[in-house]
Amino acid sequence: MRFPIQWKLKWAEERWMGQLLILPMQLLIWFVLIIPMLIVIYLSLVSWQPIMGVDWWQAPFAGLSNYVQAVQDPRFLTAMGRTIGLVLVAVSLEFLLGLALALFFHQQEFPGKRIFASILLYPMMLPWVVVGLCFYLLFLDKGPVNYILISLFGPSASVQWYQNPILALMTIALADIWQWTPFMFLVIYSGLGALPPEPVEAAMTLGANRWEIFRYIVFPMLKPVILIALIIRTLEAFKIFDLVYIMTGGGPGTSTESLSLYLYRTGFIYGQLSYAAAMALLVLILVALVARLAVRPLEREL
Amino acid sequence: MPKRAWTSVLARWGIVLLVSLITLTPVVWVLSLSFKPPQEWLAYPPTLIPRQPTLENYLVLFWPGNPVGVVSEMVRTAEPVTRAFINSLIIVPISTALSIVIGFLAAYGISRFGAGGNFLPFSVLTTRMFPPIAFAVPLLVYYRSLGLIDTHLGLILMYTTFTLAFSLWMIKGFIDGIPRHIEEAAILDGASRWRVMFTITLPLIRGGLAAAALFVFIMNWTEFLFALIFTSRFAVTLPVQVSRYAGAVGRYYGPQAALGIIASIPVLIAGYLIQRYLVRAFTFGLVK
User: Fold this and answer.
1) B229, A263 in Cβ contact below 8 A?
2) How sure is the predictor about A107, in pLDDT bands with cuts at 50, 70 and 90?
3) What's this model's pTM, rounded to 2 decimal places?
4) Would you say residue A210 has pLDDT above 90?
5) Dist CA A188 CA A221 (whole Å)
6) What percent of chain A is predicted at pLDDT more than 90?
7) Peptide bond just before A252 cis, omega within 30 deg
8) Which residues of chain B does A19 touch, with a Cβ-Cβ cutoff of 8 Å?
9) A279 and A76 Cβ atoms separated by less than 8 Å
10) Residue A46: beta bridge partners?
11) Residue B210: which of B150, B118, B276, B115 has the closest Cα?
12) What pLDDT score does B126 carry?
């Protein structure tokens, strides 16, 4: 097929303009993303600490020894397991609570509904460090939570939340759930609002009960939205750092240390940047694999 | 009213009030703490309304050595938060503006000309997918060589890049929503491509741009990890100061609470203004 010459000119112009428009973004991505990624790969293969006094590009080659060290490092593996466990517990509770709240708000009508809905949303906006601070203060030995426990169950009910690894992890999970249940609520609630009303009405006339309507009509239609919310929240929760840093600092001992916190300490407190780079790459690979698996059902849905 | 209806109304309000209570309590407690004098910080039984309300906790943040009151006696050694506050007010708006401008240009190129193919918009998303600590390790090495550690510019570059995913995807959604024939009509009238972009499309998505800007502002204002690693003295931001203040003044809960409240106010206002857009924002425009 032959195109008039003006068309070709216009195409050339648009191509050129399009490339120009994305140029600033590409420069930034190269500068802050791609070059650093190449550096991290290089770093993970050498043995370098800032304290060694040589520049990083002169460090001795170490092969895969950093990786071997990582997969044998109990602190790395437990931090990984702990983080995954925390993510599973927190995200599934956030999802269930958010879903219940969204269904409740969707089905019930009451005065002031919009005001209450916007009250529910504000925790997402808060800086993580502030959420950590709030919960830290709530669970102090002489804080309000212990006061409530004591007045309900007597003086022996007071709990030293930060002395016990399980309880300390629980307060961190609670803070995360408090802050991010609103996200699940928001996404599912707006997803519910966007559904076409006809299928539900039809099912109602046919005599389906509430559970059947939810299970066979509403839930399948909501599935893509729910999957997106779960993927985003899971990836986000896996990064957990601020809450742990503020609330427990990983303690007692290293018993509440999250993956991000351990990497932070290895790289920036202990100064073992090569080792941190190798662990970071392992984490990247893991996240990429999980994300790939998670997106697959979504692709089928859309 | 029949008895059943009464109990269901009661149950409904019970749920609504309980959920609101749980949502509000942590912050209300900290708000109350921020107005309490030292003897009430851990007073037993705790009270929600301070018995002797004071502004000292706030005053001491900006003026640690001030001669009035007991709190300042206790935290005399702490550094004032003024610098962190000013740093946040410099770094966050600049990186937000850059992120929106760069995001708008790229979104337009991608939406209208398919620039960058399918791969580019998704590669930007990876900045949000991986834990930021993984980027921090190489960036430290890199920033050291370039002398960008503990500078405003260093944080601005990072904040701009790591919020591009949000601004690009949100703005792209808004541009995709503008029908092409509006632009084509203007081109037939002889307007250049660039003119169409700035005088036709840009004004049409003004509201969306403002929402994206406020959301990116929230993301940048609350960022902690990069600020913690890449600043030490000169370019410290407010969230780092919150964490550091907690450490520096030990168990002085009143000033900690006051600082937490101050750090939260700007983002709460921004969040309130963009309520309508929050779903889009948090899901990169995937859910509308």
Assistant:
1) no
2) confident
3) 0.91
4) no
5) 11
6) 45
7) yes
8) 109, 115
9) yes
10) A61
11) B276
12) 85
Decide if pLDDT at B273 tops 70.
yes
Dihedral class, residue A73 (left if φ above 0, else alpha if ψ from -120 to 50, else beta): beta
- CATH architecture assignment, domain B82-282: Orthogonal Bundle (1.10)
Could you report the per-residue pLDDT of B151-206, keeping only the tens digit for each?
Answer: 999 999 999 999 999 999 999 999 999 998 888 888 888 888 888 899 889 999 99
Q: What is the mean pLDDT of residues B15-35?
A: 92
* pLDDT at residue number A176: 96
| Sign of the dihedral defined by the CA atoms of residues A219, A220, A226, A230, in that order | positive
Band of residue A1 on the pLDDT scale cut at 50, 70, 90: very low
The string of pLDDT tens digits covering residues A48-59 is 877 777 777 777
Instruction: Identify whether the C-beta of residue B280 lies closer than 8 Å to the C-beta of residue B288.
Output: yes
Task: Choose between A92 and A50: higher pLDDT.
Answer: A92
- Looking at every residue in chain A, the average pLDDT score rounds to 88
Q: What's the complex ipTM?
A: 0.90
DSSP B195-214: HHIIIIIHHHTHHHHHHHHH
Q: Which amino acid is at A180?
A: W
Supply the pLDDT for residue A9: 57
Residue count (chain A): 302
In sign, the C-alpha dihedral spanning B9, B11, B17, B19 is negative
Q: Which residues pair with A61 in a beta bridge?
A: A46
Domains and CATH numbers, chain A: 73-301 (1.10.3720.10)
User: In whole angstroms, what is the distance from residue A66 CA to residue B61 CA?
Assistant: 44
Does B139 sit within 8 Å of A32, measured CB to CB? Answer: yes
Task: Give the distance from residue B283's alpha carbon to the nearest chain A alpha carbon, in angstroms.
Answer: 7
Report d(CA B189, CA B195) in Å as an integer.
Answer: 12
- Domains in chain B: boundaries: 82-282
Instruction: Give CA–CA dist A262/A269, Å, rounded.
Output: 10
Q: Is B247 on the interface with A (CB under 8 A)?
A: no
**Chain B closest-CA separation from residue A201 CA (Å):** 23
Q: Does B4 touch chain A (CB under 8 A)?
A: no
Compare CB distances from A29 to B124, B131, B279 and report the shortest one's residue: B124
Contact residues on chain A for B128, CB-CB shorter than 8 A: 235
pLDDT of B60-91, one tens digit each?
888 876 666 667 666 666 678 889 999 999 99
Task: Using the predicted structure, report yes or no on whether residue B107 has a pLDDT greater than 50.
Answer: yes
pLDDT at B248 over 60: no
Q: Is B186 on the interface with A (CB under 8 A)?
A: no
Question: Residue B223 burial by CB count (10 A; 0-12/13-18/19+): exposed, middle or buried?
Answer: buried
Burial of B43 (0-12, 13-18, 19+ CB in 10 A): middle
What 3-state class would DSSP assign to B48?
A: coil
Q: 3-class SS at B49?
A: coil
**Any residues with CB less than 8 A from the CB of B281 and at least 6 apart, and which?**
B166, B170, B211, B212, B215, B274
Whether residue B115 contacts residue A11, with contact meaning beta carbons closer than 8 Å, is answered with: no
